[in-house]
Each structure stands twice: as C-alpha cells, then as structure tokens.
C-alpha cells in the first residue's frame, strides 16, 4: 500500500567535524520517501525550483517514488545551511532560504486522494491540515512538527493534531508542546491533543513510543562513525511508516517492529552526507541491522 | 557472597525544582551498599566524623551491612551541597567540604581481605589501588571515577584501571577519559586500559554495557516523578554488582540481567530524597519493575 508524503525537497549545505558538502539533496520529503521506498510505494507532494537537476528526479523515480505531486515553480529550490559541532545531537542553522517553498500550496493529484497512509512532514500545520482535507479516507495519519510551529502556530498545530493518529517529534519538542518537563507526563498531555501514538525521537539515545497503556523503548544503533545527522528523523519516520504501510498492521507488536526498522534506516543515513548511504544499501543489510538491534537489547526474564 | 565497597558516607544538602533537604544521609558507599543489600551481604569501608548520628548507623546495620570497616574520626563528616534545575541530568555543586574524608586512609579489617567482589566507588584512584592491594584474591573488581580524577590524576587512574575488571562511569567521562567524541570508539579505548567490561551511565537515557564482542543497551525506567537524581549512579552500581555477587555468575547473559536490576534500583532512588525510597521497597517491587522493563523493551524478531 502506498504512502502519501508531503514535505520539503531541499538543497543542504552542511559542515560537520568530519567534512562539508554544498547543495546536497535533502529535505524532509526526500529523506522520508527514499527511506520508505525500501518497504512500499511512495507518492510525494513537494515543490522544487527550476534549478533542480534532472539527476535528482531520476534518483527519486528510480526508488519507485511517484512524482506526480512534485510541483515545479519558477525560482530557486529551498536551501538550508547548517553545521554541527562534536555534539552531533544539535544542528546549528546558519541560513534558511525558503525560496519556492514560501508560496507552496500542496495540491494532491487525483490518484493521491485515495491514500491510506499519510505522512505530514514538518511544514506549516495549516498546510498539513489542507493536505489532510484532500485525502478521502486515510487509515493512518502520521505527522512531524518542530519548535518553530510550536512557538508561532500552536493553536493551528493543535487543530491539526486533533486529526492525526501518530505524532513523531523530538524530545525537547514534546516537553515544549506540553509545557511539562517530565517526559512521561508530557507524553500523556500531547496524546490528549489527538495522536493516540506518540513517537519521541531522542537522537543517539533512540526512540520512546507512547501508546495506550504501553511504552516502548528502542535504542539507536551504536555507530563508530556518525558523519552527519541531517535527515535522521525523517529517515526514521520513513522506515517506521513504510513498514506499517507494507504490513498493513497497526497492532502494538507491529508498531514496535516498525520503530526498530525506522531506527535501522536512520542509522544508515547518518553514516554519510545527504542520501548517499541510502543509495548503497539493500534490504539484506536492513534486516541484518534489525537483528543486531535485537541482540543489543535482549535480556532474560526473571526465572 | 559478600561485596566489599569503599567510598564516601556523606551529608547531602540538595535543592531540586521539587523540594529541598539539609544534611540528608548520602555518599557513594551508602547508596551502593544499601542498594546491594537487597541482593547480598555488604562490607563497607568509609569514614565518618564524630557528628554522625547513631540512627544512620542503625539503619545501615539493619540492612545487614557489615560496618567493621566504618572508621570514625574526630571532626565533621563529608558534606556536599548541590542543586538541580529542571534538567535533572546535571548536578550543580554549590559546596564540597571533605572534612574527615580529606585524610581518609582506607584500612581493611582482616575479615574483609578475602572479599571476592569489590566495588571501588568514586574516590582518589591512588586510594582505590591501596584498597585493592589489601584484598587477597578478588573474583571481580568494579570501580567508578569522575571528571575530577580524569583531569587531575589520569596517570594514577590508568594504573588503577589496569587492575579493574569493570568500570562504571558516566557517558561524558568515557569520552573525556578516551579523548574521543564517538562513544563506541571511546569505549574500545577505555577497555584497552584494563576493564574488560565498561558500563556507561547515561542518566535518564539508561545504560550501555560494552564487553568483548558485545554491546548491551538498557533504558532507564520511565518515571512520572523524578524527584532527586542524587545517588542514582551508585544505587545502579549497587544493584548491578549486588546481583552479580548474589548469583556468582559473570556470563554475558547474567551481566545483562544485573544491568537491568541496577537500573531498577536507580529508578527507586530518584523518586525521593536521600535513601528514603530504598527504605520503603521490598524485593517484590524490584522484580515487578524488572518485568516492566522487559515489557518496555520487548519486540519481535524478523520472521
């Protein structure tokens, strides 16, 4: 079953302690859809400028991503410039040029409107809601957001969250959204806004998933080389929602497997700049890391 | 089998966003030995001043802790004053008065020298070595340390580590000791100093254990009320080493169970000031939380 994703396609210029790259392919929708494409078909809604090269379009198409919803506007593609210090958990934004993204109005091609699985990447919550209104009868709606919208459009965000089944956000943003420092309490407050499942991303510390009467903790895959964390969260979401859509099973047990697949996908993305590592891997490598996370977390019951 | 622990007995004055307390019973040896006492016998080596009240001695004795090695010196007991903001992961030290601890020379009573399990809490690495030299034939030596010794006595610390089987320290200290930002690489460097097992404490993010060819990740128990994190690390170590000594089994599978028991013990300590929560619990509550951590981390294999 295919997933509909709406988000950004961008050029990222990034400096980390290990290297730098200019105008590399990035953006939430690119990371999400490439990651999800290892599990299922993806239909993408985003906007690019007239400077966007054919090779990137060819790459996304080669991943079986439906690009009918990829609008092309006059002007430049969204650009982000950032850097990381040795503490790779925190991105420092140097420049943001929205460019064609500033006037982006997501419009769904007719064949997208039957989508059963929807991922609203981190964009204006009002646009997220507009997308949802165009989808006929989604089985699962997941979304992301960020501090910028929590600060500037909290009312609109909460209106969107009322229509969302799963929220996938960073730990600090859960606390901010709930205005509560304790994470367990904050998670309950945020679940009260609508999303019955809350997935809390904690960077190198992994993921906590809060659902009705259950908490699941998954570690990040321990890596000897973390090169660039950009896109890790969206790649995680792509593996998570991708696995759910592929298996069409929203039971807790399957949600947990999906979380681990998401974690595995993110572990590849951070090993190289941009989508470069995702261009190399195959499904066998994904399964191999899944099994290693199983070994990493396994311990015996009390007799 | 009983454990020998050497460390501090202290009075802590602590302020957190949730309350404050003055001159409460604390110190690494108190937290460790009280926690370990739920699993096995403990022999304590530490120093107190002549201001140390009988009620605290009675409490430790009531936990079956052997106090023959608890020296009493003229002067005041070690005092620490600290506070925490909402980010409970970081303690801010306001005052440290070593008092009688300044001239502490650990001397082991004769019957302590046969100890098979030894925990060297966070004290001067030269004193840690002196203690080790008094123990005849330990089966397991575990130790803790801190940034203060890594900065000021690195050479002495490395000399001690060469005689140690397990090192239990904070994440930032692993990186500092190895002079390497990547945790996986840093762990290998530190294991090269001697301890074949490295246990990395990550506060609310749980624990990573590095041993030969294996990494184990355990989450912290998610709590709705974290009242005061003081002593969490030593309580963790007490549960960890306590379970190992009680079961006399150092295989990887048992190490992992011990890590989870340590995590459970720490989760109790942080719920109240001082040792107050440990005074209330029983072994059934410990087992209950162990099972809940099992549920928290459980996910299915790939078919």
Describe this structure in words.
The structure is a homodimer of 303-residue chains. With 303 residues, chain A is an alpha/beta fold. Chain A has one domain: Ribokinase (UDP-N-acetylmuramoyl-L-alanine:D-glutamate ligase, 3-Layer(aba) Sandwich), CATH 3.40.1190.20. Helices cover 36% and strands 24% of the residues of chain A. Chain A is built from ten helices and 13 strands. Chain A has helices at residues 28-36, 54-62, 125-134, 147-152, 154-161, 171-178, 183-192, 232-247, 252-269, 283-297; strands spanning 3-6, 10-16, 19-26, 42-48, 65-72, 78-83, 92-97, 117-120, 140-143, 166-170, 197-201, 207-211, 214-218. Chain A has a nine-stranded mixed beta sheet, sandwiched between helices. Chain A has a four-stranded mixed beta sheet with strand order 3-2-6-7. In chain A, α3 links the parallel β8 (117-120) and β9 (140-143). In chain A, α3 runs parallel beside α5 (154-161) and α8 (232-247) packs antiparallel against α9 (252-269). The longest helix of chain A is centred in the C-terminal third of the chain and has 18 residues, at 252-269. Chain A is globular. The model of chain A has no long low-confidence stretch (mean pLDDT 96). At the A-B interface, α7, β13, α9 and α10 of A face α7, β13, α9 and α10 of B. Chains A, B: This is Sugar or nucleoside kinase, ribokinase family. Chains A, B: Keywords: Kinase, Transferase.
Q: How does the major sheet of chain A shape up? A: 9 strands, mixed
CATH architecture of chain A: 3-Layer(aba) Sandwich
Uncertain regions spanning at least 5 consecutive residues of chain A:
none
| The CATH homology group name of chain A | Ribokinase
Number of strands of chain A: 13
Q: Roughly how much helix do the residues of chain A carry, as a percent range?
A: 25-40%
What's the CATH class label of chain A?
Alpha Beta
In the CATH hierarchy, the third-tier topology of chain A is known as UDP-N-acetylmuramoyl-L-alanine:D-glutamate ligase
- Overall mean pLDDT score of chain A? 96
GO cellular component, one term (chains A, B): cytosol
GO molecular function, one term (chains A, B): kinase activity
InterPro entries (chains A, B): Carboh/pur_kinase_PfkB_CS, PfkB_dom, Ribokinase-like
Keywords (chains A, B): Kinase, Transferase
């Amino acid at each position: 079953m295919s997933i509909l994703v709406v988000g950004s396609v961008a050029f990222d210029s990034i400096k980390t302690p290990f290297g730098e790259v200019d105008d590399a392919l990035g953006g939430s929708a690119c990371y999400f859809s490439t990651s999800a494409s290892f599990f299922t078909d993806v239909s993408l809604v985003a906007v690019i400028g007239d400077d966007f090269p054919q090779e990137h379009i060819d790459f996304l198409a080669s991943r079986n991503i439906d690009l009918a919803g990829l609008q092309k506007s006059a002007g430049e593609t969204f650009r982000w410039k950032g850097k990381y210090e040795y503490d790779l958990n925190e991105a420092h934004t140097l420049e943001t040029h929205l460019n064609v993204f500033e006037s982006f109005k997501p419009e769904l091609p007719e064949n997208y409107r039957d989508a059963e699985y929807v991922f609203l990447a981190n964009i204006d919550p009002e646009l997220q809601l507009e997308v949802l209104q165009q989808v006929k009868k989604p089985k699962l709606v997941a979304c992301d957001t960020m501090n910028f919208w929590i600060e500037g459009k909290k009312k609109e965000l909460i209106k969107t969250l009322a229509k969302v089944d799963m929220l996938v956000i960073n730990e600090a943003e859960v606390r901010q959204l709930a205005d509560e420092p304790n994470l367990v309490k904050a998670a309950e407050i945020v679940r009260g806004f609508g999303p019955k499942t809350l997935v809390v991303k904690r960077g190198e510390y992994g993921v906590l998933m809060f659902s009705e009467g259950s908490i699941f903790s998954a570690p990040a895959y321990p890596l000897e080389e973390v090169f660039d964390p950009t896109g890790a969260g969206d790649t995680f979401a792509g593996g998570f929602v991708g696995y759910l859509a592929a298996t069409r099973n929203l039971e807790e047990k399957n949600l947990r497997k999906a979380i681990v697949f998401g974690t595995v996908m993110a572990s590849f993305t951070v090993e190289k700049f941009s989508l470069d590592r995702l261009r190399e891997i195959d499904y066998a490598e994904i399964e191999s890391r899944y099994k290693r996370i199983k070994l990493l977390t396994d311990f015996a019951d009390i007799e």
